[in-house]
Specification:
The strands form 3 sheets. The protein has a 7-stranded mixed β-sheet, sandwiched between helices. Strands 9-10-12 form a 3-stranded antiparallel β-sheet. It has 14 helices and 12 strands. It folds into 2 domains: 136 residues, Alpha-Beta Complex (Aspartate Aminotransferase, domain 1); 173 residues, Aspartate Aminotransferase, domain 2, CATH 3.40.640. By secondary structure, it is α/β, with parallel strands linked by helices. Helix content is 42%, strand content 12%. It is globular, with a radius of gyration of 22 Å.
Length: 393
């Protein structure tokens, strides 16, 4: 029996990034401190952990052009997205304002599923049109807001997690404001943070989601950035942590790692040009092998592509056997037998959408990694096509 080799090339950084050595060292250091308490306790042990949380809050706010009081820690990007849509809609409804949601079918499952859950409860949900290349224009968003007075919250990602498209969030927020005052604007910046400059105040949004494990921090910790006056409807109930927006004992160790990772974001942004060179080399290899590129790969690290008669799942399985990690799309949808909902949202036929492969690189990806992938691609595609043909006959 042939066993897969040890993983040597990681081309799935959009699923998660490896822990940065500086973050790992910081976590080890804080865990070795004598006496660990509950951040909500008022004694010394609790206060020491509370300061860790608040230092992380300040670090994250500083990295995102926000203020510390507008940072609510969550368990990750999914919870942050859920809190933005479900909590934001609930708050608007409580205030007697329009509380419908407008978003697109190409958003992350955390946003799409939250919108579908709201629709099932009777909340108005309108789907923003998306162009065939995955782009979303400010005019199209403004048109939806104008034509649907029941909309009170708009959610558009800063960067698409599968395609690598970057959306003009600041222009979208401005277009919404010009169309109607009082509409909340949320952006899922989970895939954008660390790859492009993310600026909460400058973008003019009301809510912004981020996650630590996408910027070389620990898993299990994310945050929703928001204006301090927003009274979001809580999604959980219990104590009064995070000013009642997200109750439960704070993950102070995760927050510490998040804060350290956030302080290293500028260091990573300085390497974006090199990543863009790698992305373009991969795109050239795909095109040379007869493949097609999906969307507009604007994120420096992301490329989504497909080959006729080469199912994406089979491609990724064969890449794994060669020691290369890639994916067919969002890790949150892994294991699903359905084609990518993002590509279906572009109007792509199901068979073609099922041929998608996403590669995503990180700050430790090398030119040798890219060359190895590019070199094996033609042979790999041919192998997958033959296997698929045998299975279909």
């Amino acid at each position: 029996m042939r066993y897969p080799p040890a993983l040597v090339i990681n081309l799935d950084h959009n699923a998660t990034t490896p822990l940065h050595p500086s973050v790992r060292d910081a976590l080890v250091e804080v865990l070795q401190r004598p006496g660990l308490g509950n951040p909500s306790s008022t004694h010394g042990l609790g206060r020491s952990c509370r300061e860790v949380v608040e230092a992380a809050r300040r670090a994250l706010a500083g990295a995102l052009d926000a203020i510390p009081l507008g940072v609510t820690f969550t368990s990750g990007g999914t919870e942050a997205d859920n809190l933005a849509l479900l909590g934001g809609s609930a708050a608007l409804q409580t205030a007697g304002k329009p509380h419908g949601v407008a978003t697109s079918r190409t958003e992350h499952p955390a946003v799409v599923s939250a919108a579908e859950a709201l629709a099932a409860r009777g909340t108005p949900v309108v789907w923003i049109p998306v162009a065939a290349d995955g782009s979303i224009s400010p005019d199209s968003v403004a048109r939806v807001v104008k034509e649907h007075p029941e909309i009170g919250l708009v959610s558009v990602a800063a960067a698409n997690h599968e395609l690598g498209n970057i959306h003009p969030v600041a222009a979208i927020a401005a277009a919404v404001r010009e169309t109607r005052e009082g509409v909340l604007v949320h952006t899922d910046a989970v895939q954008a943070f660390g790859k492009v400059p993310v600026r909460f105040a400058e973008w003019g949004v009301d809510l912004l989601s981020v996650s630590a494990h996408k910027i070389y921090g620990p898993t299990g910790i994310g945050a929703l950035i928001h204006h301090t006056h927003l009274k979001l409807g809580p999604r959980s109930f219990g104590g009064s942590q995070e000013r009642g927006r997200r109750v439960g004992t704070e993950n102070w160790m995760g927050a510490h790692g998040f804060g350290v990772a956030a302080s290293l974001v500028d260091e990573g942004l300085a390497q974006i040009e090199a990543l863009a060179v790698h992305r373009d080399a991969l795109a050239a290899a795909v095109t040379a092998a007869g493949g097609r590129i999906h969307g507009m790969p604007m994120l420096a690290n992301t490329l989504n592509f497909g080959f006729d008669s080469a199912p994406g799942e089979l491609m990724c399985m064969n890449l794994d056997l060669e020691g290369i990690a890639a994916s067919t799309g969002s890790a949150c949808s892994a294991g699903s037998l359905e084609p990518s909902k993002v590509l279906l949202g572009l109007g792509m036929p199901p068979q073609r959408a099922a041929e998608a492969v996403r590669v995503s690189m990180g700050r430790f990806t090398t030119a040798a990694d890219v060359a190895a992938f590019a070199g094996m691609l033609p042979t790999l595609v041919e192998r997958v096509r033959k296997a698929h043909q045998r299975a279909s006959s």
